[in-house]
Amino acid sequence: MNPLTLLFLAFSLFLGTLTTLSSEHWMLAWLGLEINTLAIIPLMIKTHHPRAIEAAIKYFLVQTSTSATLLFSCTMIAWVTGQWSIIPHTDLTAVDLLTISLAMKLGIAPFHFWLPDVLQGITLPTGLILSTWQKIPPVVLLFQVAPNTNLNLLLTMALLSTIIGGWGGINQTQIRKLMAYSSIAHLGWMVAVVKLAPELAFFNFIIYLLITTTMFWTFHILDIKTTPNILLAWSKSPGLTTLALLMLLSLAGLPPLTGFLPKLVIAQKLISSHLTPLATAMLLTTLLSLFFYLRLVYVLAITMAPHPLFSLAPWKNSCRPRPTKTLAILITLSLFLAPAYPMISVFF
């Protein structure tokens, strides 16, 4: 892709996100979401592969219907309240409809049907943008409408997301689909407390962005797209392969790694809010996610399948992207943020 075109699309992504984050009017927020949608589609089809084009069409159709629902619910709110303020002052059915449209944009269950197929059809760098940057504007809007949203709706979506996010990834061999179901499960934990404790939901989202960015970047450097590719990762970067093993354990939420922190504080909040059955169910569903994470860890832990040593090992190609200092910082935070929990907990 032409560098100027790439720069223009990157600027459009930044502009769309900034427009949504800084707006106090629903029309401006909707405009920012549309700029983001239109800016990422050329990035999705830059490989000129039929699967990428299919993913872009699916993404466009879903986002179009979601945007129409969002605009319709905003119009209903304006009709009843007489204002286009981004924070409604009363409980309305339209607010629940607005929450559903935002959940579909984020890929939260049961509106997740598009996310695994779309992520599977695009490259890892574009998947990184779709899984992190593209989720920031809808999440911010969800935080603003959550105080007036039906709590039962949010808790139902949270439980379904953790169940589907764990169950859907069990038989997957495609890394991008695994990351899609991981995203669904992690956002389910965020939605569970977005109304009860927005600061905990924000903390969970930051940890999600941190670990997901690190994992996508690592998979891109190691050129891991399927489970069999993991067997050859050691020949590209043995040290990074070892760290990828630990990051998968962090993504699974095992203590004392960083990924354990949000699950711990969110479970504590749900129990203190007299939602112990929900907290128990969500913690049990993490065992489903843990299963396929441990399966990847097992493949990473062994060196290679029983083949001649040099038959499948690729040469270390200097054209491949290399680990950077930024990635080193992200890996450190993704693994070893747990000891800072006593300092972080004072904000909760």
TrEMBL record:
Q: Which residues cross the membrane?
A: 26-45, 57-80, 153-171, 202-222, 243-261, 281-305, 326-344
GO CC annotation, single: mitochondrial inner membrane
What sequence ranges are listed for the domain NADH dehydrogenase subunit 2 C-terminal?
290-344
Cellular location(s): Mitochondrion inner membrane
The EC class name is: translocase
Mode of membrane association: Multi-pass membrane protein
Q: Give any Pfam family that matches.
A: Proton_antipo_M
Signal peptide stretch = 1-19
Which segments does the entry list as coiled coil? none
Q: Name one GO molecular function term.
A: NADH dehydrogenase (ubiquinone) activity
| Occurrences of domain NADH:quinone oxidoreductase/Mrp antiporter transmembrane (ranges) | 23-289
**Catalyzed chemical reaction(s):** a ubiquinone + NADH + 5 H(+)(in) = a ubiquinol + NAD(+) + 4 H(+)(out)
Sorted alphabetically, the Gene Ontology BP terms of this entry are: mitochondrial electron transport, NADH to ubiquinone
Keywords for this protein: Electron transport, Membrane, Mitochondrion, Mitochondrion inner membrane, NAD, Respiratory chain, Signal, Translocase, Transmembrane, Transmembrane helix, Transport, Ubiquinone
Read off the InterPro entries from this record.
Answer: Complex_I_Subunit_2 (IPR050175), NADH_DH_su2_C (IPR010933), NADH_UbQ_OxRdtase_chain2 (IPR003917), ND/Mrp_TM (IPR001750)
The main place the protein resides is mitochondrion
Q: What is its EC number?
A: 7.1.1.2
For this chain, the family text in UniProt reads: Belongs to the complex I subunit 2 family.
Q: Report the function annotation for this chain.
A: Core subunit of the mitochondrial membrane respiratory chain NADH dehydrogenase (Complex I) which catalyzes electron transfer from NADH through the respiratory chain, using ubiquinone as an electron acceptor. Essential for the catalytic activity and assembly of complex I.
Alphabetized PANTHER family for the sequence: NADH-UBIQUINONE OXIDOREDUCTASE CHAIN 2
Return the protein name.
Answer: NADH-ubiquinone oxidoreductase chain 2
Write down the species: Craugastor rhodopis
Name the gene. Answer: ND2
